[in-house]
């Protein structure tokens, strides 16, 4: 009975240690987790994690200790704070700017200066039929889009 409990505890410790080790970057390799690395530092960190688990520390406490000892870059998932906000939000900002440029260009395509001038001169807005006829007359035919590398 005691050996069953001990083996269950050992399995739990091993599972937690593997889970934590997969989320910690090897400081020597840089591109591998300490679970996948065979570097001396990775072996020592895995042992440290197992010792910390056996001493009763939570996963969060272990992550904090590793971050304090080795810096934030040792964790694969950096925390979201003021310093990293630009990094985390940059894809959203770039996509928003691209959408804004696209919307502005679409608006400029649909706003025809000639029709606006004609409305001002006449003092009365054009009817939809007049607007359509006017656009047909002054809009050049659309050229097929070409890729930059194609010859003309």
From TrEMBL:
Compartments where located? Mitochondrion inner membrane
Question: What does the sequence similarity comment in the record state about its family?
Answer: Belongs to the CcmH/CycL/Ccl2/NrfF family.
Source species of the chain: Rhynchospora pubera
A GO cellular component annotated for this chain's UniProt record is: mitochondrial inner membrane
List residues traversing the bilayer: 85-104
Predominantly, its location class is: mitochondrion
Quote the protein name from its UniProt record: Cytochrome c-type biogenesis protein
Alphabetized InterPro entries for the sequence = CcmH/CycL/Ccl2/NrfF_N, CcmH/CycL/NrfF/Ccl2_sf
* Keyword terms: Cytochrome c-type biogenesis, Heme, Iron, Membrane, Metal-binding, Mitochondrion, Mitochondrion inner membrane, Transmembrane, Transmembrane helix
What does the UniProt function comment say about this protein? Plays a role in mitochondrial cytochrome c maturation. Probable component of a heme lyase complex involved in the reduction of apocytochrome c.
Q: Does the keyword Transmembrane helix apply?
A: yes
GO MF, one term, reads: metal ion binding
Which GO terms fall under biological process for this protein? cytochrome complex assembly
Record domain CcmH/CycL/Ccl2/NrfF N-terminal: where: 4-131
* Highest classification ranks of the organism: Eukaryota, Viridiplantae, Streptophyta, Embryophyta, Tracheophyta
Topology in the lipid bilayer: Single-pass membrane protein
Q: Which domain of life is it from?
A: Eukaryota
| Keyword presence, Flavoprotein | no
């Amino acid at each position: 009975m005691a050996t069953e409990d001990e083996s269950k505890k050992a399995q739990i410790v091993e599972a937690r240690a593997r889970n934590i080790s997969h989320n910690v970057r090897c400081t020597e390799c840089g591109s591998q987790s300490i679970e996948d690395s065979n570097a001396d530092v990775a072996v020592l960190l895995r042992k440290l994690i197992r010792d910390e688990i056996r001493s009763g520390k939570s996963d969060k406490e272990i992550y904090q200790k590793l971050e304090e000892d080795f810096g934030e870059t040792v964790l694969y998932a950096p925390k979201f704070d003021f310093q990293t906000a630009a990094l985390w939000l940059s894809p959203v900002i770039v996509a928003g700017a691209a959408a804004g440029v696209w919307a502005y260009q679409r608006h400029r395509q649909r706003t025809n200066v000639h029709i606006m001038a004609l409305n001002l001169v006449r003092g009365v807005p054009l009817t939809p039929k007049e607007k359509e006829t006017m656009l047909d007359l002054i809009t050049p035919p659309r050229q097929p889009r070409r890729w930059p590398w194609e010859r003309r």
